[in-house]
């Protein structure tokens, strides 16, 4: 109950402390959860976006001979059950049961040539356990049991099979036709039906792409196209499908549930896959064959982890700053509370109270305010959706520990020697050697860390590196220490100037700021990181913003782009031009061109480059101009240095290299490509329109009226990049952090003013009888506080702007910016400047208002007694 | 012969010398009542005081007798509830804020008891001494050095208070108080924290300022060493001036101190408490007018059936 008394008396500081603790616990508990939730969303989006071939676990075996072949779907199912039983616990919840999602079994031949096609047509046959729900029959009937026929005096199996519509069209396999497969061991395929995929866009088809469409390739050095397709056979045909005769693969696909993995568990999943691979490999599949586990999930997860690590680095860095600043402000609030009890504690100590009692007396009222607030903040943070990371628990605990530790420790340190002569107002004594050494150590460590950081990146393969993560915070603290140590020196020059003038206020204020012991070390240690981290956050945020814009432009290449697989007639161009909001329409033709007379090909776009440059006028991307004469071309770095080359498009033409571009916005980013004037073809067949203006893309699509045309817009692309789960959350986290830091900085300034109030009143009580006017008093307070705040603001601003550069390659935000590397971190100085100026103005105004408000109290006779200890 | 009505009228209308005349400090029936949370504390209960220009006066009294309140009123930091308080012709009751500021800047200088609170710790002795001049918007370098020299601390001009002894700090404080060439210096226990030798030094400095610069000095003190060396010691009891001790040099050079009780304008007199106790005087006394004095006797024992 005794601790309740001071709590009631000092209601203001107690409430402040409670609010600060609650907000800090909520922020450090809630933000990591939100982040982690967004990481999970991003992981799920990445898995859903990836083809099943990359995410699923494929246990495969090539049966070496007829005795080992599986003849019955039940045998496949039994093997499937055995394989699933081997799954490690970490993988079991992630894998979908057989028949769900992409989980299925298959027996498919590969590289099965069509007899007599000279190796240009391959028709594999395959059984898919879930074919009945994956395809629908559009012609003929589903295949039935196999038969036999005699071919070249041998009895060969005849498989009834169905092909996809694409295969029927491209390979000419009509229903009723029969194909002989193989070059030595023959088999016949009788086409009995044609099917279409129920959902052609399903990621499932990445596992069997040539079941639904023909794969066409250009073998190196050949001008001919090679076609591969797979025909579906019935389960009954398994009885005649042997590994002896052809290349046969049995596959058990353990489909991954894309929504199941969590970003926290990715490392476990990778380890579990390794375990599973070992277990599967030693499990005998058939008498002679052994399973092989094929999956690209570890690579996928690895890539995701790398992207996530860079994202986490920045956010943890910012959150670390937030935690440090919050802890600092809380310490300041605790100090405000505990300084009020100082006299009582000094007396208690003098009367014989033990240090333990003092610590308890100091911590009691603080605990009353901080513990419920911390618990409330922690509880509220559970309302934020997302999985709890260690920081979620550690953050609030740390905040509470700091508050209680400081509350208990401060009286102990302050009253260790009872009634010692403590003079807070005495002019700067020389700092003790121990302290200088400590400060020098912090500075050296921070610089060494920064050096290490530059030489290796923050998020290496090893994941988080706690020491390197501490570096930015250490740099900030080092900057704060240097500021505190050094700022009086330039100030002394000002003092010298001020002492020549006759005005008393600048002289007094500056002298005090320059010579008095820096009583406000703690506020500097709070303000500087707060400003630095919030400037850092806003710079990063605006950097991401710029990069996102750039990525969107890079992806589309114009405000609106129309691409079509067929030619767009001149009438379409006119109609698009007439759409409201369209300023300029630039027609272009894209295609593949032959380089010289070889099989070498390059992507090309023929366009009026000058007009396109006008379209890109206000965008962050661009193209160099082309000379007007001849047939100049911009080429990719791979084609650089060839000078004049001959290309085969509609006709054969000679073009001359006029410049090198690493990317063509909206079209090419790698490989061989070139940009030529539209006149490269005598009669250009326009298939692309680049549209400038803020027209409605839907209206443009209506104007084009071509169902095969695709309309994309820069705005839609930008929205898509911005709405990506990771990006949105990171921007929100950076935004919230900036606001929270600014708020903490303001609280720090106010608390600093309140803590210093007694000192200031004492000084004013002395100066007023000497003839200090009210105006002078207000000016004096403002001048006393302003140099430090100004210097802090400037250093914080500089540090915040320099941090991204200092961390340099350590921070890669490309995953937030649609893959475009975020560079040139300081495009927008407005927000950082606003933050710094806001802080300085708030501090100055606070000091002014505070003195003005204290006027009535300070001017009476009480002034003479203020601070009277007797 | 009784005066006629017209004579009385003329007498009333004739200019009469005000109380205290042209004295430097005039306090007439000064009352100061503090109200704190409903409790009224009467710190000054009709105090009268006259001090002439150039005087060196000590004010003594028990704790709570009203010394500090008087000093606050005189320094212009506190406003009395009623009565008259005038210093160098300025009425302390009717001053505006601007007058008050001018009063502090030009008329009065102040010295506190605590040596540390008289000086700003981050300024040197000379800068401290220049400060009042600067605050008034003037330059005062030469004056500050002159004062430090006069008070014997010129060699400490570049030192900060932390590097000075208590006596040196108080002498610098006197220089600060004198910096604006005030006509009155108020010192609240200036030697309270010092040993007797240092007290002597500081008191000498004050006396020097008084003699050489002609400044009126009022010292509130408990220190008998100080109280016994000034020309006049004023005792305050229960918010009133109760006694005065005058010192003069006798014929043989020795100091003769004579203690007087103070008689106010309406004839009130405070009897020293030990006198009253010795004769068991209570509630009422008997007065008898003699040819050259007034006798005060304890009240007679009344017969029990007085009523």
UniProtKB/TrEMBL annotation, chain A:
Looking up InterPro entries in the UniProt record yields:
ABC3_permease_C (IPR003838), Lipoprotein-release_system (IPR051447)
Q: Which domain of life is it from?
A: Bacteria
UniProt-recorded name of the protein: ABC3 transporter permease C-terminal domain-containing protein
PROSITE patterns per the UniProt record, alphabetical: PROKAR_LIPOPROTEIN
The cross-references to PANTHER family, in alphabetical order and at most eight, read: LIPOPROTEIN-RELEASING SYSTEM TRANSMEMBRANE PROTEIN LOLE
State any GO CC term: plasma membrane protein complex
Where in or outside the cell is it found? Cell membrane
Write out the entry's keywords from A to Z.
Answer: Cell membrane, Membrane, Transmembrane, Transmembrane helix
Q: Determine if Transmembrane helix is one of this entry's keywords.
A: yes
Entry membrane topology: Multi-pass membrane protein
Q: Which organism is it from?
A: Nonomuraea montanisoli
- Membrane-spanning ranges: 314-337, 358-380, 392-413, 436-454, 466-487, 521-540, 733-758, 785-809, 829-849
GO BP, sorted A to Z: lipoprotein localization to outer membrane
Q: What protein family does this chain belong to?
A: Belongs to the ABC-4 integral membrane protein family. LolC/E subfamily.
Residue stretches making up the ABC3 transporter permease C-terminal domain: 739-847
Automatic annotation (TrEMBL), chain B:
One cellular component term from this protein's GO annotations in UniProt: plasma membrane
- The organism's place on the tree of life at top rank: Bacteria
The answer, when asked if Secreted is one of the entry's keywords, is no
All residue ranges annotated as the ABC transporter domain in the record:
25-263
Which GO terms of the molecular function aspect are on file? Answer: ATP binding; ATP hydrolysis activity; transmembrane transporter activity
Recite the UniProt keywords alphabetically: ATP-binding, Nucleotide-binding, Transport
Q: Identify the PANTHER family for this entry.
A: ABC TRANSPORTER RELATED (PTHR24220:SF685), IMPORT ATP-BINDING PROTEIN (PTHR24220)
**This protein is called what?**
ABC transporter ATP-binding protein
Record the organism.
Nonomuraea montanisoli
């Amino acid at each position: 109950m005794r601790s309740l008394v001071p709590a009631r008396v000092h209601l203001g500081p107690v409430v402040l402390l409670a609010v600060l603790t609650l907000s800090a616990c909520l922020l450090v508990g809630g933000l990591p959860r939100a982040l982690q939730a967004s990481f999970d969303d991003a992981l799920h989006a990445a898995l859903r976006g990836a083809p099943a071939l990359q995410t699923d676990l494929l246990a495969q075996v090539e049966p070496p001979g007829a005795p080992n072949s599986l003849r019955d779907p039940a045998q496949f199912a039994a093997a499937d059950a055995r394989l699933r039983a081997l799954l490690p616990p970490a993988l079991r919840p992630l894998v979908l049961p057989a028949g769900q999602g992409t989980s299925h079994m298959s027996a498919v031949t590969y590289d099965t040539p069509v007899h007599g096609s000279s190796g240009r047509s391959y028709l594999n046959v395959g059984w898919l356990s879930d074919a009945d729900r994956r395809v629908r029959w559009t012609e003929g009937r589903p295949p039935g049991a196999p038969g036999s026929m005699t071919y070249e005096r041998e009895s060969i199996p005849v498989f009834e099979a169905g092909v996809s519509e694409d295969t029927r069209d491209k390979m000419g396999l009509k229903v009723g036709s029969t194909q002989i497969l193989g070059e030595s061991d023959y088999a016949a395929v009788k086409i009995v039906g044609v099917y279409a995929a129920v959902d052609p866009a399903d990621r499932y088809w990445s596992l069997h792409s040539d079941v639904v469409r023909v794969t066409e390739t250009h073998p190196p050095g050949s001008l001919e196209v090679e076609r591969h397709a797979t025909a579906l056979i019935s389960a009954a045909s398994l009885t005649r499908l042997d590994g002896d005769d052809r290349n046969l693969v049995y596959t058990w696909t353990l489909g991954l549930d894309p929504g199941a993995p969590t970003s926290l568990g990715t490392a476990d999943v990778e380890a579990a896959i390794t375990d599973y691979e070992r277990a599967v490999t030693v499990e005998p599949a058939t008498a002679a064959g052994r399973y092989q586990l094929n999956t690209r999930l570890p690579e996928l997860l690895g890539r995701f982890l790398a992207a996530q690590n860079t994202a986490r680095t920045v956010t943890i860095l910012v959150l670390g700053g937030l935690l440090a600043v919050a802890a600092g402000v809380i310490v300041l609030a605790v100090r405000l509370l505990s300084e009020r009890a100082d006299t009582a504690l000094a007396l208690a100590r003098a009367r014989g109270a033990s240090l333990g009692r003092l610590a308890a007396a100091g911590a009691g009222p603080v605990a009353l305010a901080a513990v419920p607030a911390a618990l409330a903040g922690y509880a509220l943070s559970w309302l934020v959706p997302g999985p709890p990371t260690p920081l979620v628990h550690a953050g609030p605990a740390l905040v509470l520990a700091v508050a209680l530790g400081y509350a208990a420790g401060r009286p102990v340190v302050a009253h260790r020697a009872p009634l010692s002569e403590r003079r807070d107002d005495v002019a700067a004594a020389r700092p003790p050697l121990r302290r200088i050494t400590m400060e020098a150590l912090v500075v050296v460590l921070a610089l060494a860390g920064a050096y290490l950081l530059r030489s290796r990146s923050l998020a290496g393969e090893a994941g988080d590196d706690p020491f390197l993560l501490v570096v930015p915070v250490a740099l900030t603290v080092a900057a704060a220490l240097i500021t505190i140590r050094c700022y009086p020196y330039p100030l002394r020059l000002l003092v010298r100037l001020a002492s020549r003038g006759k005005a008393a206020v600048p002289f007094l204020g500056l002298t005090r700021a320059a010579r008095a012991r820096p009583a406000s070390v703690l506020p500097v240690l709070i303000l500087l990181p707060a400003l630095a981290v919030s400037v850092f956050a806003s710079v990063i945020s605006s950097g991401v913003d710029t990069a996102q814009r750039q990525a969107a432009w890079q992806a589309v290449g114009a405000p609106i782009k129309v691409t079509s697989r067929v030619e767009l007639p001149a009438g379409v161009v006119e109609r698009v031009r007439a759409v409201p909001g369209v300023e300029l329409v630039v027609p272009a033709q894209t295609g593949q061109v032959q380089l010289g007379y070889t099989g070498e090909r390059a992507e090309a776009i023929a366009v009026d480059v000058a007009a396109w440059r006008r379209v890109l006028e206000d965008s962050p991307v661009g193209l160099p101009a082309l000379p007007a004469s001849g047939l100049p071309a911009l080429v990719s770095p791979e084609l650089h240095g060839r000078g004049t080359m001959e290309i085969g498009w509609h006709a054969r033409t000679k073009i001359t290299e006029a410049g090198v571009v690493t990317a063509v916005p909206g079209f090419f980013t790698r490989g061989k490509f070139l940009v030529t004037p539209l006149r490269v073809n005598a009669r250009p067949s326009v298939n692309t329109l680049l549209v400038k203006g803020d027209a409605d893309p839907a209206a443009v699509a209506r104007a084009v009226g071509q169902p095969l045309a695709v309309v994309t817009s820069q705005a839609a692309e930008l929205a898509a990049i911005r709405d990506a789960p990771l990006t949105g959350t990171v921007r929100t986290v950076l935004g919230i952090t900036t606001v929270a830091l600014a708020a903490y900085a303001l609280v720090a300034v106010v608390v600093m003013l309140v803590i210093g109030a007694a000192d200031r009143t004492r000084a004013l009580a002395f100066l007023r009888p000497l003839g200090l006017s009210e105006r002078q008093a207000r000016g004096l307070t403002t001048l006393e506080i302003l140099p430090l705040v100004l210097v802090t603001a400037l250093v914080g601003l500089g540090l915040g702007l320099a941090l991204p550069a200092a961390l340099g390659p350590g921070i890669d935000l490309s995953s937030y910016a649609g893959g475009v590397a975020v560079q040139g971190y300081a495009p927008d100085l407005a927000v950082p400047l606003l933050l710094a100026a806001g802080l300085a103005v708030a501090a100055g105004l606070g000091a002014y208002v505070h003195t003005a408000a204290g006027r009535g109290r300070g001017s009476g006779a009480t002034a003479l007694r203020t601070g009277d200890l007797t | 012969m009784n005066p006629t009505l017209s004579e009385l009228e003329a007498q009333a209308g004739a200019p009469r010398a005000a109380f205290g005349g042209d004295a430097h400090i005039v306090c007439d029936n000064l009352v100061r009542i503090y109200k704190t949370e409903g409790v009224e504390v009467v710190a000054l209960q009709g105090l009268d005081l006259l001090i002439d220009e150039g005087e060196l006066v000590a004010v003594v009294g028990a704790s709570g007798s009203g010394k500090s309140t008087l000093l606050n009123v005189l320094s212009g930091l506190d406003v009395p509830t009623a009565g008259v308080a005038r210093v160098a012709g300025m009425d302390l009751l009717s001053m505006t804020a601007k007058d008050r500021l001018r009063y502090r800047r030009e008329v009065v200088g102040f010295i506190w008891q605590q040596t540390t609170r008289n000086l700003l710790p981050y300024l040197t002795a000379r800068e401290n001494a220049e400060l009042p001049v600067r605050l008034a918007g003037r330059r005062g370098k030469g004056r500050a050095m002159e004062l430090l020299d006069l008070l014997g601390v010129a060699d400490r001009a570049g030192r900060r208070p932390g590097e000075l002894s208590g006596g040196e700090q108080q002498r610098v404080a006197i220089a600060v108080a004198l910096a604006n060439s005030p006509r009155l210096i108020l010192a609240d226990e200036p030697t309270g924290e010092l040993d007797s030798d240092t007290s002597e030094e500081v008191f000498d400095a004050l006396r020097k300022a008084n003699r050489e610069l002609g400044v009126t000095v009022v010292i509130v003190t408990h220190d008998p060493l100080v109280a016994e060396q000034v020309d006049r010691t004023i005792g305050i009891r229960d918010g009133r001036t109760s006694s005065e001790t005058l010192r003069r040099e006798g014929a043989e050079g020795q100091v003769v101190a004579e203690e007087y009780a103070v008689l106010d304008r309406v004839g009130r007199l405070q009897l020293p408490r030990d006198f009253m106790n010795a004769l068991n005087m209570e509630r009422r006394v008997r007065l008898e007018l003699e040819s050259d004095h007034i006798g005060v006797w304890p009240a007679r024992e009344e017969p029990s059936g007085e009523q």
